[in-house]
Amino acid sequence: MQLIDKLKQQARQLKSEAQVLILAYSDKRTPLSAKIIIGLTVGYLLSPIDLIPDFIPVIGYLDDLLIVPLLITLSIKLIPSVVLTEARQSIKDNPKKIKKNNWIFAAIIISIWLALFYTAYRHFSYLWK
């Protein structure tokens, strides 16, 4: 149980880096590859849909314990250190809140999920006939 608590704490610390990622995304010095990963990371963090729903026992929290920290860590490694340092300092000097109720963003994420489900259905529909 102590390992799970430790992993949850580390995940919370990495999630606090989301604001830093948002600032780094808007910086012109951030490379395109980093911006793509940051977009996926922040999109997944703010998405109302989890890859693995939390109501599934044990594995429901895998995305919170593994996927999210992995995406955040990868994003941070792709950001130039100067940009990362400046973004962290900016957050420290002027803390901002990530808006959780961004319905436009949620609609985009839901649309992407629906498109993926539709594509999978079309691709595998022959199995049900």
TrEMBL record:
Membrane topology summary: Multi-pass membrane protein
GO cellular component terms, semicolon-separated: endomembrane system
Pfam families xrefs: DUF1232
InterPro entries: DUF1232 (IPR010652)
The keyword Transmembrane helix is annotated on this UniProt entry: yes
Keyword Translocase recorded: no
Domain DUF1232 residues, every copy: 34-70
Positions of transmembrane segments: 36-59, 65-83, 103-121
Major site of localization recorded for this protein: membrane
Key words of the record: Membrane, Transmembrane, Transmembrane helix
Location(s), subcellular: Endomembrane system
Protein name: DUF1232 domain-containing protein
Taxonomic lineage: Bacteria, Pseudomonadati, Bacteroidota, Flavobacteriia, Flavobacteriales
